[in-house]
Amino acid sequence: MKFKSGLLLLLALAAPFPSAVLAKDTVKLAFIGPLSGGNSAPGLGGRNSAQLAVQLRNADPAAKYTYELVTFDDECKPNVGIQVATKAASDNSIIAGITHYCSAVGIATVDTYSRFGLPVVVWGAILPEITYGNDYREIHRVNGTMINEGRLAADFLTKQGYKKFVVVHDTTDYGKGQNKYFTEYLKPTGGEIVATFPVSPDQQDFTAELTRIKELKPDLILIGGLTPLGVRLRAQMDRVGVTAQLAGVSGIMTAGFLEGAGAAGEGTISFHNGAPISKYPQGQAFLDAYAKAGFREDPDAYGPFAYSATNLVMDAIEKTGPDRKKMKEVLNGTKGYKALVGEINFDDHRQNIVNANVYVAQDGKWIYWPDSDYAAGKKRLARN
Amino acid sequence: MDIGILAQQLFNGLMLGVIYAMIAVGFSLFFGVLDVIKFSHGDVVTVGAFSSLGAAGIAGGLVALPPVLALASGIAAAVAIGALAGVIIGRVLVLPLRHAPGVNVLLATLMAGTVLREAIRLGVPNGGNPKPFPALLPGGAIKAGSFSVGIDSVMILAAGLLLVLGTHLLITRTRFGLAIRAVAQDGEVARLSGIDFHAVVLGTFALGSALAAFAGCMLGLYYREINFNMGVLLGIIGFASAVVGGLGSMLGPIIGGFLFAGVQTLVVVALPISSAYKDVIAFAVIIILIAIFPTGLIAERRSERV
Q1: Rounded CA gap, B172 and B177, in Å?
Q2: Do A214 and B150 touch (CB under 8 A)?
Q3: Which residue windows are transmembrane per the record (chain B) (predicted)?
Q4: CA-based, 20 to 30 A from B154: which of A28, B129, B182, B292?
C-alpha cells in the first residue's frame, strides 16, 4: 500500500509539468571517419565539427528534434569502413550519415549505404567515383573532387614554369586517382611526367626512390597521397639531396603535415577544394564556437565540410521528419543551400560544385596563395 | 646509372640493413633464451623513438642544452625506457606464460604491442600525427659527383654497426653473455650451475628491447620524422629477417636484415615502376629462402645459440 500511494504521489507531482518539454524526439546521425591511425587528425577535426553542429542545433529552441551523433571509426581502412558502415546503416534508428575522409573507404562503402537505404553526405573523401561512379541516390558530397584539384594543379604548376614532373602516389584508389587526373590534365599543358612511383601508403623509407628521382632531375615532385606519406617524403628529400619543388593535393593540406615536416615543409604547394575558413562569411563565427566548445583537436582542413554536411542533413530532417526515404529526396534536390563552406548545389550525381584553390606552406601555416609572400614575390618556390 | 648514384643506393641499402639488423637481433635473442616470439618488439622501437624525442625535446627546448647533450639525454631515455619496457613485458607476459603453448606468448605480446602503440597515440599530444624529430647530429654532407650523403647518416650507420658488433662481443666475451648462452643451451642445466635464470631472461629482454629502442632513436634522427605506427611493419621485417637469417643465432639476423634491405633497394633501382612491389618481392624472396633453408641461412644446429 505504501508503494502504491508513493507512486500516486509521484504521478500527481509529475502531472502539472508541461508534456511538451519531454516531447522532442531524438534523431540519431552517424559520423564516420578515421578517428585512429595516421589520418586521425582530419578525422577527429571532422568529428568535432560535426559534433559542434549538433550541439548548436540542440541548443536552438526552434529545432524540432534533439540530435545525437553516433561516431564510428573507419581507421581509414576499407574493410573496417564496410563493417562500421553496415553497423550504422542497419541500425534503423540512425536516419543519415556524415561519412568518410579517406577515399579508399568512401568508395568501398557506397554499395552498403545504397543497399540499406541510408542517405549519407560525404565530408572529406575526394575520389570522383564516389559520386560519379554510380547512380546511388543515397550518396551526396559537399566537398569537391580530385578532378578539380588535379586540373588546377596541372594548370597552376605549369604556369609557374615547372616542366618536368615526378609523381609519387600511394597505391590506394585515392593515390591512383590523383595520379590519373593529374597526368590527364598535365598533357594539354605541355608538362612532362618523367617517372611515376607507386608506393605503399605505409612505406617508411623513400631514400631509394628519392635517389632515383635525384638522377632524373625533375622540376617538381607531386605527392598523390595523404599526410603521413607527404611528411616522410618531404623529410627524406633533403637527406638524399633532392632540391625539386614539392606539391600535393588536399590530402597533405593538414596541420599534421606542417607539424611533421617542420621547417622543411616551408614552400610546399597544395590544392584544396575549400577556400580558407576566414574567407567564408560565417568562418569566424564557426572558429569562435569551435574554440568555445573546447575540443582538444583542430577542425583541420575538412572540419568546415563536416560541419556543413551535418547541418545540411539536420535541415533536411527538420523538413521531413526522421524518415530516411523522404529526407533523401530533400537532400537530392539541394540547390542554393547556404552553408558554412558557401552555397551548396548538387548536380545530377548529388555532387556539390566547388572550385579548387591554391595554398602554400608559409611560416608553419597553410596560406591562401594570393595572400602569400610567394605570390607577392617576397619568397621564392624551389627551382632546380 | 653513374657510379655516384650507385654508391648512394648502396649506402641507402646499408643504412636500411643496419636498422633491420638491430631489430632482428632482438627477436633472435628472445628466441634464443626462451624459445618465444615477442611480437611487441616493433612497438618497442616506436617507444624508443618517442622517448628520445620527449627527452631530447625537453633537454633541447626547455633546459636549452646544446645538441650533443640533448642527443645524449635522448639516447639515454630511449635505451632506459626501452629496456624497462622489455623487462616489464618479459616479467608480466612472457615468463608466466613460458610453459603455455608458444602461440599464447605470441598473442599476448602482439596485444601488448597494440597497447604500447595506442598509448603513444592517445598519450602524446596530437599523437595520431607524424612528429618531426630534431636534427641533433652535425649537418653537412659528403659529396663526390652525384654521390651525396649527410655526415649524420654516416654517424648513424657507424653507431648502428658498432652497436651490433658490441652486442656480439657482449654475448661472446662477457660473463653475462656466457650466462645468456648457457640459458639458451639448456635452462635447467644453467640453473643447476647456479645461474639466476629469471635475471638472465629479464636481462636478455632488457638488452634486446634497448637495442630496438636505440634503433627507434636512430630512425628518428635519420628520417627526421616519427609516427605512432612506424613499428608495425618494422617489427614484421625484423622478424622475417631474423627467421631467414636463423632465429636463435647472432649472425643470422644481421645477414637477414641486410638481405631484406638489399632486395628492397635493388627492386627500386632495377624496376622503378614496380616500386610498390618492393615489400612484396622482398617477402617473396624470404619465403623462397625459408623454403630452401627451413632453419635459416645460419642453421641453428651449426651455430651456437645466443
Answers
A1: 6
A2: no
A3: 14-37, 44-65, 71-93, 144-171, 199-222, 228-247, 254-274, 280-299
A4: B129
